[in-house]
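Need tokens for this chain, all 205 residues.
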Amino acid sequence: MIQSGVTTGTPSKILFGAGVYFKGITYNEKVAPTEQEVRAAIIGATQEGGAVTITPQFFMPELDDVHVAVKELQTKIGETAQMEVSFAELSADLVANMVIGETAESTDKKYDVITSSSNIEAGHFFEGFGYYGHLMDGRPAIIVFKHALCTSGFTTDPKSKTNALFKGTFECQSDISYSLTKLPYVIFIHKQDGWTPVDPDEVTA
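Here are the structure tokens for all 205 residues:
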């Protein structure tokens, strides 16, 4: 009797740890960013991790006497992709991007000053925004959005005896030159040399 789906290949397929989030990586759907590139592009320390959600959107016509979902009638009509991240570090650049604001200096040069911007400018988008993590066997797993826009705004909840967090939702955005029907995101899962899929016979009671 088969009681578990665990095999000898299971540890090499488990994503483990919080990983890091970065911005400024060159978007390329055929070339994964290197660890050195990611290290230089890290946005900051996180706390409570994050979440990645990529959701296709479907349409099926409501035809007479069709009472269930039918695969031949399904059409993909769009998709959404977003990362929710809890940053522990506060910076002027991060805040300005989250609030869609403008950054300047105070008169005495002692403060970065963020004020509201009337329009979305190119600089408000996080270019080459993504996540870099590892599977339990050490292989990297990477997700990159070509463009990301913070759609949640700036929120924080300072409390006594603990540090504040700065949580944001970063949504993948396309551009006219890329596509009007799909989003520019890419997921890289490293293929380790010599790694092979688990033989079904390894699944035992």
